[in-house]
User: Which sequence fits this backbone?
């Protein structure tokens, strides 16, 4: 970019890791609407808070009210939505936090593009796996009903595609694990990979 020069921070990410006593990165939750992304991201966030870990959740519905207001659900807008979220998540990771993103993020290539913004190991893709039939039964916001009635177009899983991850770091099957168990599986992964110390 012309006339714009990158300014290196005086405080490095490692400095912040040292101060916080834990590493940073992104927990990238992906899955169908109603699969449990928000519920699980918030359960993990609450657990991290209890453990004294600096964390935050970026949630699809909330971000679309502000930062990404005006973006719709056509392919181009979804791509831009996820591109921006990847960049924001990277800022959170740079700031030393463990950030969770809860977006459908239906396209594999967009998730891979987000992954490329991060250092090796710091992008943790979590497939929130739940069959469409169960998501549709849960239908926490009544959106599947609307989509089936044709009142919402381009609805993921109905008339817009979802590409499941081919090689995610974690698969959480929310149709067979409780919310508590699902959150603990994510925390166990963070301990195993030494994002958070074992003794916490
Ligand atoms: N057409 C269509 N398709 C899918 N979802 C829709 C649609 N219209 C509105 N909603 C609501 O928006 C939430 C998904 O937004 P995201 O930003 O996560 O979508 S995406 O990643 O850009 O595909 C999604 O939230 P979640 O249920 O939390 O996934 C829906 O509540
Ligand atoms: N094991 C589970 N994990 C996550 N959510 C679950 C689970 N079991 C049932 N649910 C329910 O499924 C719904 C998932 O909704 P939500 O978290 O908004 O999904 P998403 O963010 O993927 O659209 C919630 O009503 C939640 O209580």
Assistant:
């Amino acid at each position: 970019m012309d006339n714009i020069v990158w300014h290196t921070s005086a405080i490095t990410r490692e400095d912040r890791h040292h101060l916080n006593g834990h590493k940073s990165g992104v927990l990238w939750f992906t899955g169908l609407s109603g699969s449990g992304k928000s519920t699980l991201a918030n359960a993990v966030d609450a657990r991290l808070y209890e453990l004294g870990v600096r964390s935050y959740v970026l949630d699809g519905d909330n971000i679309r009210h502000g930062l990404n207001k005006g973006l719709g659900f056509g392919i181009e807008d979804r791509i831009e939505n996820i591109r921006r979220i990847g960049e924001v998540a990277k800022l959170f990771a740079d700031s030393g936090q463990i950030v969770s993103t809860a977006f459908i993020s239906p396209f594999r290539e967009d998730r891979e593009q987000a992954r490329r913004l991060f250092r090796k190991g710091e992008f943790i893709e979590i497939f929130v796996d739940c069959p469409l039939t169960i998501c549709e039964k849960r239908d926490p916001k009544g959106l599947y009903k609307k989509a089936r009635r044709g009142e919402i177009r381009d609805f993921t899983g109905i008339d817009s595609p979802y590409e499941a991850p081919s090689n995610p770091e974690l698969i959480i099957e929310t149709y067979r694990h409780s919310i508590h168990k699902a959150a603990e599986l994510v925390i166990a992964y963070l301990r195993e990979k030494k994002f958070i110390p074992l003794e916490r």
In short: The longest helix spans residues 75-94.
